[in-house]
Write a structure and sequence with these properties.
By secondary structure, the chain is α/β, with parallel strands linked by helices. It has helices at residues 2-9, 13-28, 39-52, 57-76, 78-82, 87-90, 95-119, 123-143, 161-164, 167-184, 196-222, 243-246, 252-263, 289-296, 351-356, 359-362, 428-443, 490-494, 497-515, and strands spanning 234-238, 273-275, 304-313, 318-327, 332-337, 382-383, 391-395, 413-418, 447-451, 456-459, 465-469, 475-479. It has 19 helices and twelve strands. It is globular and about 75 Å long.
Amino acid sequence: MISLNKWIADLRFWKKALLAFILGILVAGALAPLHLIFLLPVCFTGLIWLLSSANTRWQAFFTGWWFAWGQFIAGLYWIGVAFTVDAATHAILIPLPVLALPAFLAIFSGLATLTTYLLKVRGLPRLLAFSAIWILFEYVRGVIFTGFPWNVVGYAWSAFLPMLQTTAYIGVFGLTLLTVFISTLPSLFGEADRPKQSSVKWLSSAAVFLLILYGLGQWRLSDEPTDAYENTNLRIVQPNIPQVDKWKAHLRLGHLRKLVALSETETGDNPTHLIWPETAVPYYLTTSRQLMEQLAEFVPPGGAIATGAPRQDPVIRQYWNSLQVLNENGEITDIYDKQHLVPYGEYMPLRDLTMALGLRDLIPALDQMSDFAVPDPSANRTVRLPGLPPARAMICYEIVFPWEVRGDEEFSWILNITNDGWFGTTSGPYQHFAATQTRAIEQGVPVIRAANTGISAIIDPYGRVLDRLDLNDTGILDGALPKPLNTPTFYSKYGEYTSLFLTFMALIIGVFLGRRP
């Protein structure tokens, strides 16, 4: 491996950039739906060797930038698919999510490699410092400009449920810190001045540590059955309506009838509550008394329909992406308006600036994007369905933000409605589902997920998928509501403080050891 490291160091920089780009692309293969996790040590070891051969600050920055640009192009290409739904209007914008957005996100990884380079540490201390700095910039990426915490490599473990149990204590960012550090350890074998025995020792210790974590996770899963609330039978409806047809005026009534027909499917147990996906009702439900009364006819006795539907205020002309609870009397008993909107999907950032710069005239599609309103930050984030404990409502990609789940209000389960039909049969819906599954483990509560085209599921507080409807399936899921854990998880009490503590400790130790003679 020393000779391989030397071969990389002797490459011209444009070849190093190409290699970094390819390694970044391979990182996406470790995430859902492929879960080729063995690629992580290959890719991060290569990144460390490339960084070691950087001769200038710019080379150090662009080593990480090219790596991350490849990762985000391969890992986020599915966003561009949404722009093909109305291709005549939006196809011209596809380079923005497919190339420009990854290029912007890659800046944070470039800053991580640059910062590591500036520390001038080597060996194991460099790996500790690099891992910590990488995670710190992942945090920045997750919060700046409303945040975008997709493609965090800790989700690569979502196919290995025992390992994912670690997130109940340190969250997915803490698991990412461990994953990145362990993935960089093979790079020690490429250092000519390091005894081979030392590298073997560290890599063997890491392997034993992973086995211990896996064993503890397996013990946690095998020791705890899934308990459920009595007399609850939720019916999750997955209508699988193509996004290209969803808002066509002559088809909307047919979509609603399909939802009702699936909800009335006769099975062994009658449902107590119906769960419909995001914008399942393609009408303004709160301002249509007739529609509410008609839908009330299908509400199970004593239960409710929890459905996504747009909401409008006809007076101030504002619109919200909402989750609404309709009871058997035809009354809306609770509403949750989506708080974390998708840039360019649900609102146009810097609309006034684009108009001032003349971009609206250059790219008319920019002016055709409607804006949903953002509710008051103090608005209620939990919803109550008759006969059920309070639920934390989360619409679409809100659930990928781990720090936004916990709030001031107590809840016993998470209700996630989404419409991933925008992204077709791509890796996007699988990545979204992996994040949803991880939130259940972190918070120690079940997740009920209704998705228009999939993946809908009932997930218990250990992240176990009790039942699911796969991508592009049409059907229903019937099941009792699982109970949350008897005691809160460590992560649900302390959130990101633990992973941030571990991150800063790794950075301090790495810098301290690296500065020692």
